[in-house]
Write a structure and sequence with these properties.
2 domains, globular, 5-stranded antiparallel beta sheet, alpha+beta, 7 helices
């Protein structure tokens, strides 16, 4: 099994999250050992296979979590996965860890390898026609605001696209930042940009 390619920006992310450093190092070691390549997507570490985002992780106040983007297809015999928002999140599943909790590396490796197998078998929910282009201003805001990042990730692909195009569509940086501030409370509330116009 080939070891995946690391990304120095993940070192920077780990340095900012000392509380979760031990768990993050374990996640990283296992995911690279599985052959996945590192990247940063939406301000958090992402692990890719064939250029597709399979797994990510992030730290919050009370817990840290791994996300399996097509986790709905994992067998989860150990019962570790949960849906972040029942009735809203379809494919993604998360595995939460509390402060000081040991990461079962062999089990995590099994989950990662199964996610890779599922990807190679073409298992996915609602394929997106093109990759979402997140504007730099929104990406920077999410990298410094964990709640905003979690809320954006939990949005439907259509709502993510609406916000990305609304913020990124402005020519001037000043306007993009103003639009970001207008969109922030709507994202945190889990709503769409144009919800008030829909019946």
């Amino acid at each position: 099994m080939a070891v995946g390619k690391s990304d120095g920006r993940v070192d920077d992310y780990l340095a900012k999250h000392e509380q979760w450093r031990e768990q993050f190092l374990a996640f990283r070691e296992v995911l690279l050992a599985a052959g996945l390549s590192e990247d940063i997507k939406w301000g958090i570490p992402a692990y890719l296979c064939d250029g597709k985002n399979l797994i990510g992780f992030a730290g919050f106040k009370q817990h840290c979590a791994l996300w399996f983007h097509q986790g709905v297809f994992l067998k989860d015999a150990a019962g570790k996965l949960s849906n972040a928002q029942e009735g809203k999140t379809q494919a993604m599943r998360q595995w939460k860890f509390t402060p000081g909790e040991t990461v079962p590396r062999e089990l995590l490796l099994d989950y990662a390898l199964e996610a890779i197998e599922n990807h190679k078998a073409g298992k996915k929910v609602k394929p997106v026609s093109r990759q979402l282009q997140v504007p730099e201003e929104l990406e920077n805001a999410m990298s410094s605001d964990a709640k905003l990042r979690e809320a954006f990730i939990d949005l439907t692909p259509g709502r993510q696209k609406e916000y990305a195009e609304y913020i990124g569509g402005a020519k001037q940086e000043k306007t993009r930042l103003a639009r970001l501030e207008k969109a922030r409370p709507l994202i945190l509330a889990g709503g769409g940009l144009h919800d008030k116009y829909r019946s």
